[in-house]
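Problem: given the chain below (414 residues), write out its structure.
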Amino acid sequence: MRLLHTSDWHLGRSLHGVDLTEGLAAYLDHLVDLARQVRPAATLVAGDVYDRAVPPVGAVQLLEESLTRLAELTQVIVISGNHDSATRLGFAAGLMRPEIKLVTRLDQIGRAVEVADPDGGPGALIYPAPFLDAYAAADYFSDQDNPVARSHEAVTAAALGRVRLDLARRGLGGVAGGDPAASDKAADAANRQSRAANGRPATVVMGHAFVVGGAASESERDLTVGGVATVPVGVFAGIDYVALGHLHGPQRIAAPEPQLIRYSGSPLAFSFSETGQTKSTAVVTLGGASPAAELVPAPVPRPLSQVEGMIADLESRRFDDLADHWLRVTVTDPSRPEDLVQRLRRRFPHALVIRHLPSGPALGGPGRPVTAASDPSRVVAEFIEFAGGAPPTEAELGEVGRALEAARRGGEGR
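Solution.
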């Protein structure tokens, strides 16, 4: 059986002032066409559906239309990400048509979505887990005898505990937990083959987290505030396929065979750190002893590129092939050229960022631009060092983290 795996749509997002709604709508058209061709048993949307907690009206309408079209072709399972408001995204989930599952609440973790194989195979048990806030999830999973630490690793492990409990209730025990380095990998592989041979369903977990080994970009919101940011691979041990969201580059996470852990990546580039990535949708095939994934390239409005050099070189014919690209242009002349922006706008009409960074030493030492994608805690730490002449202490960093967490939680609550 086959699944479609996608994530990080970030509906409502812009790129350096350019509205990406048209490009995201084109991707969703592509996703519907792909579902029509592939006929997947389910389409998995692994979080960050919206770009912010209170999305614009157009983004809400686009999501409604897209889910309706997809549900005519396949079951659709959606989890909330760290950019989404879980409450708003999950509103009226109980009133949705049966083909659409919105999973945004902690009490839904450990409940499998049973997906039948259109070809008559054993099907799959899909366990959606929304983004786990380290504070709220730790409080939810803790009890008097078993407190859960406020870290992404601890709360994700607790969520997988709910998954394994449900598998045990179904008589599908033997799914390993803990550190795969300490487990018997041969026995685990044999267990998977036995499950497949005996007609037992494949196991799939959907999550939204930063798993160790993943490569980040500038456009993801940092998860370090509120606990340790990363989740080790071993937390997912024994699960056949782990469909992840959060990181915007499509990538496979190293895990013991035959397990497959993958980020689908975002459908469009949301920062210049994603230059060179091929945006895609994962077509996942389950069955037998080893899941497999094929990446189908997604349509993009314009290629994303970066170019730097002296102004005379940039104005030459050498870069004609970049004239239609979204660009970040870096001018390296020792002194700022006259009419810099106007000249480069004429040369590259779709340049989104134009900056002057002299190739020689600059007065006052090197600077680093602060953008919306910058890590707030790092910006504050650098300011403390600049203003005070010394790096911040651990106590000061702790106060910064608590203040940023309070601001983030307050902003998402409005």
